Amino acid sequence: MQTKPKNKKPAGEASTTFQSVKGMHDVLPAESCVQEKIYRLAREILEFYNFNSIATPLVEYLGLYNRTTGEATDIVEKQMFTLKTKGGETLALRPEFTPGIGRAYIQHGMSHYPHPVKLFTIGPLFRYEQPQAGRFRQFNQIDAEIFSTENDAIYDAQGILACYRILDELKIKNLIININTIGCITCRPNYRKALVSYYKNKEKQLCTDCKRRLPVNPLRLLDCKEPICQPLKEQAPNTLDYVCATCKKHFKEVLEYLDNLALPYALNPYLVRGLDYYSKTVFEINTQPAEGEEKIDFALGGGGRYDYLIEELGGRPTSAFGWALGVERIIDVLHTRNILPSSRPKEKVFLIHIGDLAKRKSLCLIETLRHAHINVIESLGKESLAAQLRAADKADAPLALIFGQKEAYEESIIIRDMKTGAQEMVPLTKLPEMIKRKLN
After folding, report:
1. How far apart are CA 146 and CA 123, in angstroms?
2. pLDDT surpasses 80 at 14
């Protein structure tokens, strides 16, 4: 007797249940609460510095990233999620924010706005990479961009300040700003030539990716994380020895602003960031481990100046500076150091209903309390008084509102102090006033 072959389950599907896609995790209520507090703080700080919110689509034309992010970057070569539409268009799930915001800046005529134009956004991005600490395939970033008509170092400094301030306000200690200049379109060719010359006779000692990138984009070798390439990188030519007088002056001004702000920074002549559109200032913010603490191997955020991107996309020549913070990376550090943001929980009263009439009137009563800015918990599906009182006790509500048949007819309600058990009957018209008095 032949047996029928079993149907093969799709990837990620267990015998009866599905799992989340690899590298894309669910944000459960506890983490969501922390995430929202980070977002709220970031918005407050960025709005203080006059950044305005913008939202761009999750998908863009693939060519946008090929042209700006760089065809020889990890993002474009290995990490983009791409798709073809039924009409034959090739799109990409956004792997970063800057090209999309640059596209929106041009498309919507923001070059005619009063400058500087300061924009920020918060949301998900997608990169196909091996999931590990601080790296997911779907992740969230806080992103800020400054578009200006002047190539002024003060915007570099203010951008770095806003980025640093968010982390500082989250109580993350031992922050350090790693900073460098990678020059401009005039002086960078000299540095590229020096790098190629340095690495030319050392090709056999490089990893596969670096061998391939050397003739195409030698600066990417300085961004390589492979252990085999680290000793060579440490002896590579220094960017500061090759930048022009204009770039040196710009960088000196940035550092002077950081000195005036008393922000902690360290010069890192081998910091280049992994994207092709950067010029002049680049930076990353790391947190140094406290004594006995494990080293954190990823930057919490970073960015830099990109004065050629808008023109590359067909816009007017525009000076620009931007950065992004990794939200999951921040949360990871907050968990590791046990410094999750705390806030006093909003006190909520617990509404208990008894009987059909009271149940029918409960939703209207809840709306009355909402208009009075009083937070309410309820368990409208439970019918027994004992079960609802237990729920009120578990919710740690200071007050329970007992709304029965008699109270529903008489337009009144019982307020019960959950600590002392003391009860008081009050008219519904005076309920908001009485609750606020008892909670204060």
Report:
1. 18
2. no
Strand partners, 18: 13
Beta-carbon contacts of 360 under 8 Å, excluding residues fewer than 6 positions away, are: none
Nearest alpha-carbon partner for 149 in 320, 280, 281, 306? 320
Contact 140, 273 (CB under 8 A): no
CA end-to-end span of the chain, whole Å? Answer: 78
**In whole angstroms, what is the distance from residue 80 CA to residue 85 CA?**
16
pLDDT tens sequence across 370-383: 999 999 999 888 88
pLDDT band at 274 (very low <50, low <70, confident <90, very high): low
Amino acid at 433: E
pLDDT of residue 1: 45
The Cα–Cα gap between 259 and 88 comes to 53
Edge to edge, the sheet with strand 52-53 lists 52-53, 117-126, 138-148, 319-326, 301-305, 279-287, 175-181, 265-267
Q: What is the pTM of this model?
A: 0.85
Mean pLDDT across the chain, nearest whole number? 90
| Helix ranges, 52-121 (H) | 62-68, 74, 98-107
**pLDDT tens digit sequence for 344-364:** 567 889 999 999 999 999 999
Q: Kindly state the helix (H) or strand (E) to which residue 252 belongs, with its residue range.
A: helix 245-261
Query: How many helices (H) and strands (E) would you count in the chain?
Result: 15, 16
Residue 5: pLDDT above 60? no
Single-letter amino acid, residue 247:
C
Q: How far is the C-alpha of 134 from the C-alpha of 139, rounded, in Å?
A: 9
Q: Could you tell me if 308 and 185 are in contact, meaning their C-beta atoms sit under 8 angstroms apart?
A: yes
Q: What is the rounded distance in angstroms from the CA atom of residue 60 to the CA atom of residue 62?
A: 6
Residue in the block written with tokens 């090209």? 99
Residue of 239, 333, 357, 231 lying closest to 285 (CA atoms):
333
Collapsed DSSP state (helix, strand, coil) of residue 337: coil
Can you tell me the distance from the alpha carbon of 404 to that of 426, in angstroms, rounded to the nearest whole number? 13
pLDDT-based confidence at residue 80 (cuts at 50, 70, 90): confident
Domains in the chain, CATH or no CATH each: 29-187+243-336 (3.30.930.10), 348-439 (3.40.50.800)
The two tokens of residue 368 are: 């009355």
